[in-house]
């Protein structure tokens, strides 16, 4: 698996890679509408979201991004909680991260789609994101 590299998200209005969409993992069915409402409340009412569960764990991000808006709604997901943002501006990323933190939702992993990551199976991407989150946590703790 090719490794990507982290880059700080600036505050540009330039659109990043991929179609405008979110791939959301690890959401219980009773949280999904609340997440969609959060997005609507910050002006992303037409943003397509695909909710991913265990049945899709071996699909690539590219395959998941081809699924229609609302895929997976009403089904609990036992996957690691994460959101992969595709086609966002950097300003849009800051906006969603800020509102998500204020929302009371549990902490989750975040990533943006890249030409490398779109080829990864979602289960492998979630593993890598968790490893990277652990590395950051250890660095913060000294």
Fill in the keyword field for this structure.
142 residues, alpha/beta, Macrophage Migration Inhibitory Factor, four-stranded mixed sheet, 4 helices, disordered N terminus
- What shape does the CA trace take? globular
Total number of strands: 4
- Percent of residues in helices comes to 25-40%
Give the assembly state of these chains: single chain
Average residue pLDDT: 91
Please name the CATH topology. Macrophage Migration Inhibitory Factor
- Gyration radius from CA atoms, angstroms: 14 Å
Number of helices: 4
Q: Biggest β-sheet, characterized?
A: 4 strands, mixed
Give the distance, in angstroms, between the N- and C-terminal Cα atoms. Answer: 29 Å
| Whole-number count of domains | 1
Strand order of the largest sheet: 2-1-3-4
Structural category? alpha/beta
Regions with little confidence, pLDDT below 50 for 5+ residues: 1-7
Using the coordinates above, name the CATH class: Alpha Beta
Task: Describe the 3D structure.
This protein has 142 residues and is α/β, with parallel strands linked by helices. It has a single domain, classed as 2-Layer Sandwich (Macrophage Migration Inhibitory Factor). It is built from four helices and four strands; from the N terminus they run βαβαβαβα. The chain has helices at 29-41, 61-65, 90-103, 122-141; strands at residues 21-25, 49-52, 82-86, 109-112. A four-stranded mixed beta sheet has the order 2-1-3-4. β3 (82-86), α3 (90-103) and β4 (109-112) form a beta-alpha-beta unit. The radius of gyration is 14 Å and the shape is globular.
Summarize the structure.
The chain is an alpha/beta fold and 142 residues long.
């Amino acid at each position: 698996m090719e490794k990507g590299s982290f880059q700080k998200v600036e505050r540009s209005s330039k659109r990043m890679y991929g179609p405008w969409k979110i791939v959301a993992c690890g959401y219980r069915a009773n949280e999904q509408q609340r997440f969609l409402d959060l997005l609507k409340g910050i002006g992303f009412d037409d943003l397509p979201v695909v909710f991913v569960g265990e049945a899709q764990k071996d699909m690539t991000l590219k395959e998941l991004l081809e699924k229609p808006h609302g895929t997976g709604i009403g089904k609990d997901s036992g996957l690691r909680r994460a959101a992969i943002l595709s086609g966002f501006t950097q300003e849009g990323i800051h906006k969603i991260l800020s509102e998500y933190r204020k929302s009371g939702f549990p902490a989750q992993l975040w990533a943006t789609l890249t030409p490398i990551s779109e080829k990864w199976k979602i289960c492998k991407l979630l593993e890598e994101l968790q490893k990277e989150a652990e590395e950051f946590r250890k660095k913060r703790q000294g």
